Amino acid sequence: MRSASVSHTVFAVTMIAVGILGLIKGDFAPLWEPIPKSVPALAYLCAFISLACGIGLLGQRTAPAATRVLLAYLLLYLLLLRVPGIFLSPTVDFWWSACQIAVMVAGTWVLYVWLADEWDRRRLGFVTGESGLRIARILFGMALIPFGLAHFIYLKHTAELVPGWLPWHQFWAYFTGCAFIAAGVSVLIGFYARLAAAISALEIGLFLLLVWLPIVAAGSKDAFQWSETVVSWALMAGAWVVADSYRGTPWLVAKKR
């Protein structure tokens, strides 16, 4: 699949924006935090890889190499800087940030399957074929479940974020948490997986549109709110790519894949 989809383009532009943000700040973009501050050069490395790979994703000749590099980078980031933290310091911050990176890995992996060239298919067939696509979807499904659980752990805070013009704030906090969990399970077992992936991407996009963008548009200078806006945009892009990977699959297929 050589032709770029809308989700492919949005993902590429997102990585470019994350890279530019990191270079402007001279620090880690929100997507990569929390991170040890003892290696300042790592912030610039993260920014440069994001920027270079994002640009590479937009070119037909450079896209295979860009996805290969970005996937290797994100996998290493997940395995070396996120997964150990889940066991060494099992706090919400660590597993939440691990799930964020897992969504980006999943989106990049789908793009790698789409854009792999002959060299990749010959030497890395396991990660560029159906098995690679299956792993990407499993990562995505696993990441959605903790997103949903966080809504229950931080129920009061989640309810406070519901726009004021919507009634029943606590109901929406419960509902969106259950939706993430149900979508994650559905993707993992292949039960209405296309519908579940699309709904989860839509839900992340609605959080961005209805919660974070209005807050920052109102002139907020709160670092956390700006950080969540950037992260929500990146997660929406990653989730959109994964949802797009089900193209050609009927919406209401209830069989294991």
Summarize the structure.
By secondary structure, the chain is an all-alpha fold.
Give an overview in words.
About 75% of the residues lie in helices and about 0% in strands. The protein starts with 5 loop residues before the first helix and ends in a 13-residue tail after the last helix. With about 260 residues, it is mostly helical. The model has no long low-confidence stretch (mean pLDDT about 85).
Entry keywords:
11 helices, 77% helix, 0% strand, mainly alpha, 257 residues
Stretches where pLDDT is under 50 for at least 5 consecutive residues are none
Mean pLDDT across all amino acids? 86
- List SSEs in N-to-C order: HHHHHHHHHHH
Radius of gyration (Å): 18 Å
> Strand count, sense and closure of the main sheet?
none
Structural class: mainly alpha
Gap from first CA to last CA: 21 Å
How much helix is in the residues? Answer: over 70%
From the spread of the alpha carbons, the general shape counts as: globular
- The proportion of residues in beta strands is under 5%
Number of strands: 0
Number of helices: 11
List the helices and strands and how they pair.
Blueprint: H1 6-25, H2 40-57, H3 63-88, H4 92-115, H5 118-123, H6 125-128, H7 130-153, H8 155-161, H9 169-189, H10 193-217, H11 223-244
Helix pairs in contact: 1-2, 1-11, 2-3, 3-4, 4-7, 4-11, 7-8, 7-9, 8-9, 9-10, 10-11
